[in-house]
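Justification of resources, computational component.

The compute hours requested in this renewal are based largely on the per-chain cost of generating structure records like the one below. Each record pairs the submitted sequence with a full structure-token output. That output is archived, and it is also reused by downstream analysis tasks.
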Amino acid sequence: MTTTIVIVLGLATVVVLLGAVMASRRSRTRQPVRTPPAAPGESPARDLASDPDYFDPRTIKVGDTVYVEAARYRAVGAVHCAVQGEQWTDYLLDEGARRYDNWLSVAERPGPGGEPSHLEVLLWTDVPTQGMVPAKHMLIVDGVEFSPIERGTAAFRSEGRTGLPERGLLDFADYRAGDGRLLSFQRVQGGQWEAAYARPLTPGSVRAERLP
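The structure output for this chain reads:
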């Protein structure tokens, strides 16, 4: 596969300095990840907000202890994103060894045909893309073909420990494989592209505890 290197020129001095600071933090944390839209014909996620038997992940706060399936984390930061009326939050999870490899995305999706909205919850893990950048056509990663589904720029507001500015812009490019697997590329303030895979979480697999 041909690897394309994109060099961004002409940035203002403050953005260049910001990029340098972010690069120095990249070994401790990574960028938030986008929650791609559901595939055409795909059944929507369960409406967690109206189901009293399940914890509503939208209520997670920075500092909470978060349980994802059998794993225990601490939510050390959150990135609240918005683009064209769509909103989602990415929670940075610390597993206790100062490894920030996982982001938990929570997005509220409108229901089809005026039906009630529902929540999509995804757990993201890093992908070693080795300098790859998102293309407008099909990509092959780890031998799997991914087709583009959406790209754009979102505004974000960070909270807690994320390694990101308090506010800014992030570019995203989302892809989906034939088996439904999700891949997302993102970069903040014109920085380096990073990528992650998504794993959908089942209802009830996420809960949180917070100190009184």
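The chain has one domain: 59-210. The longest helix spans residues 13-25.
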